[in-house]
C-alpha cells in the first residue's frame, strides 16, 4: 500500500509548484490521477514501459486493453505515429483540445505495452488546464485510462478516484468535478470511412458534419452483446461501467418507459429487493422506489451526461440491489449515455411499448 498524495488545485489556474511536483512523479515512473474535461484519468509516462505496466496493475486492467495517450500539443503526435492523414489534421485543428480520441498507425518509439501490442495508438489532447499543465511540465506523452478500477463506472470526481485507487497510486490532482462526465469519442482513422469505436463527448453528428462519411462500429450502438473476434477497440469486449447492483435499462417512448419502470419497481420490491430508479427531472416524482435519482432534464443532455457515473456510484453506496434506468434518446451526447447504460446493464434492456 502506497501513501497517495492528494493535491487540491484550481481547475483554471493550477498552482505551478503543485504541477511541478506531480510532473516529477510522472517523470520518475510514478502514477498520478488528474482531471480532464471528460473524466479523471490515471497518468503514467507513455514512453516508460515499467510505468505503464504499473498503471495496468493499479487499475487491475487486462493487459490487452490499451490506454489513451494524452499529448499537450499537436506537434507531439508526429513522433508517436507513422503518418498523420489529412482528415486527422483537420480534426486536430478543429476539435483539439477536446473530447476526441484519434486512432493512428503507431511509430517505433511507442513501447508495446502502451498499445497492448497493437500496431495502432489512441491519442488525444484534453481540454483542461490541469491536464495540459501536467503533460507539458512532464515533458512526455501521458498514457491515461480512466482512473477507476477496471469494470467500474468512470470517475467524475477525485473522491471517486480515491474510492477505487487510494493506496494504489502515488498522487491525485483534485480540481473538482469534471465538466462533461462521459469519456472522449474514439474515432478510428486507420479505416475508410473512419469509424467511431466508442461514442463519447464529441457527438457522431458533429463529426459527420466535419468529415462527411463516417460510420458507427456495430458495438458502439449495440443493444445486445456483440461478439467481437479480435476486437478493434479492445475495450469493447470487456465489461464496463458496472455498478455492484444489477442494472436494467428501459427503452422506448417516454410514457411507455415510465409505466414499465413503475411496473418493474413493483415486481422487484415484491421479491424483497432494494430498488433504485434512475429517472429524469420530468419523471422523478412519479416513482415509488427505495431510492429515486434524477439525471437531470431531458431537454439538457449535457446535464444528464455529467451526472450519469456519479449517480451509478451513489446507488452502490446506498446498497441497492437493482437499478432500473430510464433510457434517453440515443442522439448527440445521448448516444454516449446510452452506450454506457447498455454496457453497464450487461445488455439487460427492456423495450417498453403500449
Ligand atoms: O475521456 C477519455 O477518453 C478518458 C480520459 C481520462 O481521457 N480516458 C479513457 O481511457 O476513457 P480508457 O483507457 O478508459 O479508454 C480507452 C479506450 C478503450 O475503449 C480502448 O480499448 C480504446 O480506447 N483504445 C485504446 N487504444 C486503442 C487502439 N489502438 N485502437 C482502438 N481502440 C483503442
Ligand atoms: Mg475506462
SSE class: alpha/beta
- Largest sheet, described in full? 11 strands, mixed
Specify the helix fraction band.
25-40%
Bound small molecules, which ones?
threonylcarbamoyladenylate, magnesium ion
Poorly predicted spans: none
The sequence of SSEs as H and E is: EHEEHEHHEEHEHEEEHEEHEEHEHE
Output the strand order for the largest sheet. Answer: 1-8-2-3-7-4-6-5-9-10-11
Q: Which band does the percent of strand residues land in?
A: 15-25%
Broad shape: globular
Count of individual beta strands: 16
Distance between the termini: 54 Å
Whole-angstrom Rg: 20 Å
Tally of helical segments: 10
Assembly state (oligomeric): single chain
Q: On the 0-100 scale, what is the average pLDDT?
A: 95
Can you tell me about this structure?
By secondary structure, this protein is an alpha/beta fold. It has helices at 16-27, 49-59, 75-80, 86-95, 129-138, 158-165, 204-211, 254-270, 301-317, 333-344, and strands at 5-8, 32-34, 41-45, 69-70, 100-105, 120-124, 142-143, 171-174, 185-188, 195-198, 215-216, 246-252, 275-279, 291-294, 322-326, 349-352. The strands form two sheets. Strands 1-8-2-3-7-4-6-5-9-10-11 form an eleven-stranded mixed sheet, sandwiched between helices. A five-stranded parallel sheet has the order 14-13-15-12-16, with helices on both faces. Strand 2 (32-34) and strand 3 form a beta hairpin. Helix 1 (16-27) crosses helix 5 (129-138) and helix 9 runs parallel beside helix 10 (333-344). The radius of gyration is 20 Å and the shape is globular. Threonylcarbamoyladenylate (TXA) is lined by residues 36, 38-39, 41, 65-68, 99, 101, 103, 115, 118, 120-122, 126, 144-146, 183-184, 186, 197-198, 232-235.
Amino acid at each position: 500500500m502506497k501513501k497517495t498524495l492528494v493535491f487540491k488545485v484550481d481547475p483554471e489556474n493550477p498552482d505551478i509548484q503543485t504541477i511541478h511536483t506531480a510532473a516529477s512523479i510522472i517523470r520518475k515512473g510514478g502514477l498520478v490521477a488528474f482531471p480532464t474535461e471528460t473524466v479523471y484519468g490515471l497518468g503514467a509516462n507513455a514512453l516508460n514501459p515499467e510505468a505503464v505496466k504499473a498503471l495496468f496493475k493499479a487499475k487491475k486492467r487486462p493487459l490487452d486493453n490499451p490506454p489513451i495517450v494524452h499529448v499537450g500539443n499537436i506537434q507531439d503526435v508526429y513522433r508517436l505515429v507513422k503518418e498523420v492523414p489529412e482528415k486527422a489534421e483537420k480534426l486536430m485543428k478543429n476539435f483539439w483540445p477536446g473530447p476526441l480520441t484519434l486512432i493512428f498507425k503507431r511509430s517505433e518509439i511507442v513501447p508495446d505495452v502502451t498499445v497492448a501490442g497493437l500496431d495502432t495508438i489512441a491519442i488525444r489532447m484534453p481540454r483542461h488546464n490541469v491536464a495540459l499543465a501536467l503533460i507539458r511540465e512532464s515533458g512526455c506523452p501521458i498514457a491515461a485510462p480512466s482512473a477507476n478500477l477496471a469494470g467500474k463506472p468512470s470517475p467524475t470526481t477525485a473522491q471517486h478516484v480515491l474510492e477505487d485507487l487510494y493506496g494504489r497510486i502515488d498522487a491525485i490532482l483534485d480540481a473538482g468535478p469534471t465538466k462533461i462526465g462521459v469519456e472522449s469519442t474514439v474515432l478510428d482513422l486507420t479505416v475508410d470511412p473512419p469509424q467511431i469505436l466508442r461514442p463519447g463527448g464529441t457527438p457522431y453528428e458533429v463529426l459527420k458534419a466535419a468529415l462527411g462519411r463516417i460510420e458507427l462500429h456495430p458495438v458502439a450502438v449495440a443493444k445486445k452483446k456483440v461478439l467481437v473476434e479480435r476486437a478493434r477497440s479492445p475495450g469493447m469486449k470487456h465489461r464496463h461501467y458496472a455498478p455492484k447492483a444489477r442494472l436494467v435499462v428501459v427503452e422506448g417512448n417516454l410514457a411507455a418507459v415510465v409505466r414499465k419502470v413503475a411496473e418493474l419497481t413493483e415486481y422487484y420490491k415484491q421479491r424483497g429487493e432494494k430498488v433504485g430508479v434512475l429517472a429524469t427531472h420530468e419523471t422523478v416524482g412519479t416513482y415509488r422506489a427505495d431510492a429515486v435519482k434524477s439525471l437531470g432534464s431531458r431537454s439538457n443532455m449535457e446535464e444528464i451526461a455529467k451526472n450519469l457515473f456519479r449517480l451509478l456510484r451513489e446507488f452502490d453506496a446506498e446498497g441497492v440491489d437493482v437499478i432500473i434506468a430510464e433510457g434517453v434518446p440515443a442522439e448527440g451526447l445521448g448516444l454516449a449515455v446510452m452506450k454506457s447504460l447498455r454496457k453497464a446493464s450487461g445488455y439487460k434492456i427492456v423495450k417498453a411499448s403500449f
